[in-house]
Amino acid sequence: MDNSTDPDKKKKLLDNKTAKNYMKYSGMAFQIAAYVLVGIFLGKQLDKYLETSRPYFTALGAILFLVAFFIKLMNDLKRGDL
To answer: How far is CA 51 from the centre of its chain?
Structure first.
């Protein structure tokens, strides 16, 4: 019997591919959260150091690190890493 037509093997391959996709996209979710949290942390530290009246650097840090994540994501997509 040809293994490529075995329904159990096809199901295993599909399950494996599905699991890889879940891992890949959940990893991306953790990465985006980490990028934004680092930006917020650095912004808060800068706001505290410069004693700003409003959290300008906190907001700027979150936005800049979010943009940095999307630039990284686009580069990964171009290379075919995802």
So the answer is: 32
